[in-house]
Specification:
This protein has 178 residues and is of the alpha+beta class. It folds into 2 domains: 16-112, Double Stranded RNA Binding Domain (2-Layer Sandwich), CATH 3.30.160.20; 114-178, Ribosomal Protein S5, domain 2, CATH 3.30.230. The chain contains 5 helices and 8 strands; from the N terminus they run H-H-H-E-E-E-H-E-E-E-E-H-E. The strands form 2 sheets. A 4-stranded antiparallel β-sheet has the order 1-2-3-4. A hairpin with a 2-residue loop joins strand 2 and strand 3. The longest helix has 14 residues, at 95-108. The termini are far apart.
């Protein structure tokens, strides 16, 4: 049995940036160069039509109220395409709406990812890895991303691998300290 789809409603921009994108007068590069704020998900849909989505985690969270426990679902989603990545999280009473909200928030949080060939062994000048070593910290976790030569692939944890594949990085080492 085939599900009936809702008819696509034409997008009516609510912001000046949305109007410029709909008319084709501005590109994604100009948006990031001028630090413009994207407030409509349709802007990203129009500028990056091949955007891929991946659900990172779905957790059930509970809140204690006077009438008992209230359960909700929290979804963490990443969206990306070669050179761009966005992360979004949202909560809802059901899983489906939580994932849709998280996708919308991830589209509004899309940022460019710098790519290059930072490995001394490779030196090809392509954009298959990261251009230099990167260190990051969130809570008690520290991660080090190191460029790698051709033939190595992604040497990292599964969740990190999902994020890097979506943004177009094919080769790199990683080391994390907990």
């Amino acid at each position: 049995m085939q599900r009936k789809r809702r008819p696509e409603v034409e997008w009516i921009p609510k912001t000046k940036l949305g109007e410029l994108v709909q008319q084709g007068l501005i590109t994604l590069d100009k948006i990031f160069q001028n630090n413009l704020v994207v407030k409509e998900k349709q802007i990203i849909d129009m500028l990056l039509p091949q955007l891929a989505e991946s659900v990172i985690a779905i957790n059930m969270v509970q809140q204690m109220t006077a009438s008992g426990q209230r359960s909700r679902f929290k979804a963490v989603v990443i969206v990306g395409v070669d050179g761009f990545i966005g992360v979004g999280a949202a909560k809802s009473r059901e899983v489906g709406p939580a994932i849709r909200k998280a996708i919308d928030r991830a589209k509004l949080a899309v940022i460019p990812v710098m790519r290059g060939c930072g490995s001394k062994e490779c030196g090809c000048g392509g954009s298959h890895s990261i251009p230099f070593k990167v260190n990051g910290k969130c809570g008690s976790v520290r991660i080090h991303l190191i460029p790698s030569p051709a033939g190595v692939g992604l040497v990292c944890a599964d969740k990190v691998k999902q994020v890097l594949k979506l943004c177009g990085i094919e080769r790199k080492f990683s080391k994390s300290n907990i």
